[in-house]
Amino acid sequence: MTDDLLIFEAGEGARLRATGTSRGVDPIRLEYLCRILELDPDKLARNTTGVHFKVCLMGALALPLVINPGNVSSCYLVSSEAHYVKYCREELRKFDSWDATLFSAFIAIFGAIARLLSFNRTVFINNWLLSTSPRAELSRELVQRLTGGLVRRFGDYALVFKAVGEGDHGMREAFTSSGWQLVAHRPVHWWEPERRSGKQRRTLARDWRSLEASGLRIETAAPTEIAGHVARFAELYRALYIDKHSSLNPWYTSEFFQIVIGCGLCQAAHVLQGETSVGFQTTFVDGDVVVLSVVGFDPKLDRRRYPVYRGLMAHGMRLGLSSRRKVFLSTGAASFKLNRGSYESIEHEAIHVAHLPVHRRLPWNIATLAYNSAAQALDTTRL
User: Fold this and answer.
1) HEC-encoded secondary structure of 136-186
2) Structural domain tally of the chain?
3) pLDDT tens digit string along 293-343?
4) Is the Cβ–Cβ distance between 19 and 57 less than 8 Å?
5) What is the CATH number of the domain that holds 218?
6) What's the predicted TM-score (pTM) here?
7) Least enclosed by CB within 10 Å: which of 73, 90, 181, 368?
8) Domain span at residue 72?
C-alpha cells in the first residue's frame, strides 16, 4: 500500500497550510494547527517544556501529534506518567475507601517501575493541547494506514490516540481489530435536553435566574476583540486549575487563548462584574455536540452570592438547547452535573505498543488491565 501519510515538522506551518488547503482540510482546524506548529508547546502551556509538535496529514484528515521523548512528566496532557500515575493518585485522595487506598499504593509502585521502562516515551495522536480533543472519525483502513506510517517513523515510541468515547463503537472496533488496546482514561459527562427530569429542568432554570439576580452578566467575546481579554482569561484559569486544583493541569498562557479563540476553533463567553471578567468559558461545536472546553473563574468569590460556575454551565447547556445538540461536559464536578441531568461514560485512549520490545510493552499491558478494572470498581461519580 502506498504510504500517503505526511508529517509536518515545527516551523512548517506555511507548508501545512498550502497542502491542507489543497486537500480540503477543515479551514478552522487547519489554521489552529498551522499556528501551533510555529510555536514551542510551552508558549501555549508553560508546563510542557521538552515536548514537540508535529502534524500528521492523511488525505483530508489532519491530526496533531505531541512527541514526548520520555523525560517530561509535568502536565497530564503530554505525559503518560503525569496522567496515569501522578494525576490519578491526586484524584484517588477524594475517595475514603480501602480499595482506593490500595489502588493508589499500587499506582505508586507501578509508576516507579514504568518510568524505568520509558513509559513516557510516547507519540500522542489527536492531541490538540485541549482537555477534550475534537473527534476524528477513523475507519479500520485509516487506522491501519496511520499505524503503519507512524510505526515506520516512530518505531521506538508507544502510540497513544486521544479520546475514544464509550459510544464510538465504530472507532473502538477499528482500533481493536488493528492491534490497538483501549485503556480507561477518565469518566466524562454528557447532557441531552430530552433526558432531563422535571426537577433537573427546574434546577437549570434556577441556576440561570441566580446568575441574573446576582448582578453578573454573560457576554460573548468576539475573536476580533479577544486580545483585550486573554491575559485575564489566563489569570482566571491559573487561579482555579493550577493554584487551587493541580499543577499537573496544562498551564495555559494568554497566547494559547489568543490562538484558540482568535482562529475560531473555540468560542468564548465571559462573566462580567461591572466591566471586570470574573469567569469565562470556551466551547466548540463538534458535529452534533457542543463541547465545553475550558472554564475559569475567580475562586475567591462567594459562590452563593456570585454563582459564576453555575451560570457558565447553564450557559453551555443553553447552547445545546438552542442548537439542538448534545453537550459534552467533560470531567469533574460529577454530582453537580448529574443533578442537572447529565449521564456518565468512560472515555478511553487507544494504545499501540505491539511494535515495541516486551519490556516496553509491559507497563502499558499492566495499565490497560489495572485502569479498566478500576473504572468499573470505583464510584467515579465522586470525582
Assistant:
1) CCCCHHHHHHHHHHHHHHCCCCEEEEEEECCCCHHHHHHHHCCCCEEEEEE
2) 2
3) 999 999 999 999 999 999 999 999 999 999 999 999 999 999 999 999 999
4) yes
5) 3.40.630.30
6) 0.95
7) 90
8) 6-187+347-382
